[in-house]
Specification:
Elements lengths: L1 H5 L3 E3 L27 H4 L6 E6 L5 H13 L3 E2 L2 E2 L6 E5 L7 H15 L4 H12 L2 E4 L4 H9 L1 H8 L5 E6 L6 H12 L13 H16 L2 E7 L3 E6 L2 E4 L37 E7 L11 H18 L1 E8 L5 E8 L4 E5 L1
Parallel strand pairs: 2-8, 2-11, 5-6, 5-7, 7-8
Antiparallel strand pairs: 1-6, 3-4, 9-10, 11-12, 12-13, 13-14
InterPro entries: P-loop_NTPase (IPR027417), RecA_ATP-bd (IPR020588), XRCC2 (IPR030547)
Protein name: RecA family profile 1 domain-containing protein
GO molecular function: ATP binding; ATP-dependent DNA damage sensor activity; four-way junction DNA binding
C-alpha cells in the first residue's frame, strides 16, 4: 500500500506525526506577523478545528495558509527564547500546484529574524529545521487526494513517527471541480444499475478521509475554496459566495459543528457530513471606488493607475469570519508585503 503514496508527486522536507486527542491546546498561540500578540482569531483556534477559506483568484487564500503553516512549524522555544510557534508538522496537499516553498522560506526567515535581530545565522538554522516539518503532496485528482489522505497514517508511521501533525491543508478543494463536474454529467446519463458504489462523488471520499484524520490526529484543518458564484448577501467591501462544491461542510449560525447537515444536492440520497466546519473566512481584495460622474477620461485613467499602484503596494485584503454556532460576523485585514504577512482581526 505504501507504493500508492510514492505515485503522488510530493515535496518532503522531512517527516511527520503522532496520534493526539481532539481536545488539545489552542493552535497558533504565540507568533504573529509583526512579532506582537496574535490576532484573536488565531489565538482562539483549537486542534481539530476546520476552516474553509473562500475567495476569488488573488484574494490571499494561499498567503493566509502560509501564515497558519508558519504558526505550526515554527519552533516554540529554543535556548529560553520564545519564538511563538508550535514546533509541529504541517501536511499540505497542493492540488493547484501553486504552493511556493521558497516564498514560505522567505516569510519564516523574516519572522524569526525579528526575534533574533543580532543572530541571523541562528534564524537561518531554525528556519531550515522548521521547514523539515513541512510536507507537501501534489495529487492530480480527487481520488488520488482521497487515497493519499487515507494512507497518511501509514506514511506517518513509516516515515516520521517522531513528529506530530498540527496542520493539514488542501489548497485548493476546487482544483478538480470542472473535470469532476464533467464526469458527473456523464454519469447522469448512465442507467442506475450500471453505477458502481465506488462511482459516488469522489469529494465524499475526500471528506470522509479528512473526517477520520480529524478524529484520530486532531490536526487543524484548512480548506481553501474558489469563490465562483456570488451570493446575494454581502457586507461592506466583501461579497459572500455560494457553495459550488457538493457535498461540502456547511456553515451554520444555528447549529454546533457536530450537528451540521449535509449539503448534498441532486439525485443522490443525503449522507451524514463526515467533516464539521467550525469557521468560514471569505476573502476579497480591496475594491476600487467608482469614479465621479464628472471626471474626464484622461483623469480617470490617471486616477485608476495611481490608485491601483497604491493598492498593490499596500497589499491589503479584507475578510469576513463566520463561526459555526454564532450569529456575529467579525472582520480581518490581511496585508501582504514582499517580506511578511500582517493580520489584523477586529
Amino acid at each position: 500500500m505504501a507504493s500508492l503514496l510514492n505515485e503522488i508527486p510530493r515535496e518532503s522536507l522531512q517527516n511527520l506525526l503522532s496520534s493526539v486527542r481532539v481536545h488539545t491546546p489552542s493552535f497558533g498561540h504565540h507568533i504573529s506577523a509583526e512579532g506582537h500578540a496574535p490576532a484573536p482569531l488565531l489565538s482562539s483556534l483549537s486542534r481539530g478545528d476546520v476552516i474553509e477559506v473562500q475567495g476569488p483568484a488573488s484574494s490571499g487564500k494561499t498567503h493566509l495558509l502560509y501564515h497558519l503553516i508558519l504558526l505550526c512549524i515554527a519552533p516554540s522555544r529554543e535556548m529560553s527564547i520564545d519564538f511563538g510557534g508550535n514546533g509541529l508538522a504541517a501536511v499540505v496537499y497542493d492540488t493547484d500546484a501553486s504552493f511556493d516553498v521558497a516564498r514560505l522560506h522567505q516569510l519564516l526567515l523574516t519572522r524569526l529574524s525579528l526575534v533574533l535581530p543580532y543572530n541571523i545565522e541562528m534564524a537561518r538554522r531554525l528556519t531550515e529545521e522548521s521547514l523539515h516539518r513541512l510536507h507537501v503532496f501534489r495529487p492530480t485528482s480527487l481520488l488520488q487526494l482521497a487515497t493519499s489522505l487515507l494512507h497518511l497514517p501509514l506514511y506517518h508511521k513509516v516515515s516520521i513517527p517522531e513528529h506530530e501533525i498540527g496542520l493539514l491543508a488542501v489548497d485548493s478543494m476546487s482544483a478538480f471541480y470542472w473535470t469532476d463536474r464533467f464526469i458527473a454529467e456523464q454519469m447522469r446519463n448512465m442507467p442506475q444499475r450500471e453505477l458502481h458504489p465506488s462511482s459516488v462523488n469522489p469529494l465524499q471520499h475526500v471528506l470522509t478521509a479528512l473526517g477520520r484524520l480529524r478524529l484520530s490526529y486532531a490536526p487543524f484543518i484548512i480548506l481553501t475554496n474558489w469563490g465562483l458564484n456570488l451570493a446575494s448577501q454581502s457586507s461592506g467591501p466583501v461579497t459572500f459566495y455560494k457553495q459550488h462544491l457538493h457535498p461540502f461542510p456547511v456553515y451554520s449560525e444555528n447549529h454546533d459543528a457536530s450537528d451540521l447537515p449535509s449539503s448534498m444536492t441532486g439525485d443522490l440520497p443525503p449522507a451524514p457530513m463526515p467533516l464539521p466546519l467550525t469557521h468560514h473566512i471569505t476573502l476579497s481584495p480591496v475594491s476600487i471606488p467608482p469614479f465621479a460622474p464628472e471626471i474626464s477620461l484622461h483623469n480617470a485613467v490617471q486616477q485608476e493607475v495611481e490608485y491601483r499602484r497604491s493598492m498593490v503596494q499596500k497589499g491589503e485584503i479584507t475578510g469576513l469570519v463566520r463561526t459555526t454556532g454564532r450569529q456575529e460576523i467579525t472582520r480581518l485585514t490581511l496585508r501582504i508585503t514582499p517580506e511578511n504577512v500582517h493580520i489584523t482581526h477586529f
